[in-house]
Amino acid sequence: MKWFILVALFGLGLAQHNPHIKKGRTAIVHLFEWRWADIAAECERYLGPNGFGGVQISPPNEHIMLDNPWRPWWMRYQPISYNLCSRSGSEDELRDMITRCNNVGVNIYVDAVINHMCGASGGEGTHSSCGSWFDAGKKDFPSVPFSNCDFNDNKCRTGSGNIENYGDANQVRDCRLVSLLDLALEKDYVRGKVTDFLNVLIDMGVAGFRVDACKHMWPGDLAAVYGGLHNLNTKWWSAGSRPFIFQEVIDLGGESITTKEYVNLGRVTEFKYGAKLGTVFRKWNGEKLCYTRNWGEGWGFMSDGNAVVFVDNHDNQRGHGAGGAAIVTFWDPRPHKMAVAYMLAHPYGVTRVMSSFRWNRHIVNGKDQNDWMGPPSHSDGSTKSVPINPDQTCGDGWVCEHRWRQITNMVKFRNVVDGQPHSNWWDNQSNQVAFGRGNRGFIVFNNDDWDLDETLNTGMPGGTYCDVISGQKEGGRCTGKQIQVGGDGRAHFKISSRDEDPFVAIHAESKL
Ligand code: AAO
């Protein structure tokens, strides 16, 4: 009997590690704060045709609304109910988006905020995205309904009721994260409400969840919630497919809670990845690109099959969460493009690309005074839609890193080399490195202050290839640099340290 339960649990765990990305696709993009209508259009006009595997969307359920023009992005992380109307749109728009994205092979992953409701000082009234009444002071959320007894305060042992010490696992799970009302997920009733909410989304056709703030929930409670989830909708997935689960747990070491406690339940966000990669590309702390020869588990990251990786996320690009100033974001486009390309070329983990909006960054003593600023919006506070410029970039403050040629082309590179081993490593013992993916792709970086001029073994079949960083193959022609690979697989690379993008990538489908 015990054996049977173990096998069942293990099987369930493994199944929830599979992102169910459609064949030939590999990467996820986080369209942070985008409206559902814009995501639907983006799936059809860009993500589907360019081989993106999925979109992480902002939380779709009802959230607190703070006074315009004070409309911080983080309102989305303060739930009021599980009604599906949010700053990104209505339930109908959500359903339409899921259907249209699925129909072009792009999965939707929902950011699920299930650890808490709004902040304790969230007030009383109908200042919520669907207009539901609530009273944060009385812990009364009738639209779920949750009441006073559905929260953890009786278990929390700190004076303030908030988490005061990340070294104490009990308070991290039983007390309030930055004063957010902490749900009692040990109760069957609370688990049931959360599970029902997630199942509605699964039935609508989402492929899985980014589960917010998992460090703050007991693994056993999460196992109970995940165990109650439906299989994916058979309109788009084969029968018996489990929803993909990736859990936000920040673990840079040195705390009582580690990612290890969560990896059997689903994948986990590997925050060391972006923090280290940023440090390497910034050449801080004596780091050099040549040290990344054993990138992945060799750097103390969790095992490949458990990790979701990213260069930056919506928190650490503005100083929230973890990673600090090392994180490279769109504000530093040159190292950002290199770091994202490195991630997409490297086989480790399920990769997520960040797609941001611009805000009035104002850093004083290392802290961004405007880290709260919400997405581009109209004077009534509603989120602006994303206009597409003639050159395919986005307007109105939407950065759309995922549309930058270098990044889109590396998403395609990852698809082309999928399943191939990390191979043909070369480095100059400094910040010039190269590696391939079997005989399907090869990438060369120059992050030194001098030029790279080398003949390297690419492992690729002979021929002329188009570099997908300086340009791309268009109608049989190459708009960028051309690379000649000889019959012996060797090719000459010249990369000036002053190039706009000091790296070169070729793959099987960029052959001319
Ligand atoms: C807002 C206001 C608050 C107010 C609250 C309630 O800002 O002042 O009290 O409303 O009214 C987001 C925003 C919050 C916002 C919240 C609700 O970021 O500012 O609060 O919405 O609107 C921890 C959690 C992690 C969390 C992260 C931000 O563990 O789960 O904080 N991320 C998720 C979401 C995030 C969201 C929430 C959770 C809440 O992605 O967008 O918050 O739904 C250590 C710990 C980490 C901890 C950080 C930050 O990290 O390890 O677990 O993350 O501290 O507190 C080095 C260390 C590193 C350390 C870091 C920072 O890097 O190596 O370990 O320093 O000290």
Automatic annotation (TrEMBL):
UniProt keywords (A-Z) are:
Calcium, Carbohydrate metabolism, Chloride, Disulfide bond, Glycosidase, Hydrolase, Metal-binding, Signal
**SMART domains in the record:** Aamy, Aamy_C
The annotated regions of Polar residues compositional bias extend over 379-388
Leader sequence range is 1-15
- Keyword Manganese present in the record's keywords: the answer is no
Task: Please state the gene responsible for encoding this protein.
Answer: amy2A
SUPFAM superfamilies from the UniProt entry: (Trans)glycosidases, Glycosyl hydrolase domain
Q: What is its EC number?
A: 3.2.1.1
Please, which domain of life does this record's source organism belong to?
A: Eukaryota
Where is the region Disordered?
Answer: 368-388
Q: Which GO terms describe its molecular function?
A: alpha-amylase activity; metal ion binding
* Residues annotated as domain Glycosyl hydrolase family 13 catalytic: 26-414
Q: Where is the Alpha-amylase C-terminal domain?
A: 423-511
**Name under which the protein is recorded:** Alpha-amylase
Which catalytic reaction applies to this protein? Endohydrolysis of (1->4)-alpha-D-glucosidic linkages in polysaccharides containing three or more (1->4)-alpha-linked D-glucose units
* Gene Ontology process terms (BP): carbohydrate metabolic process
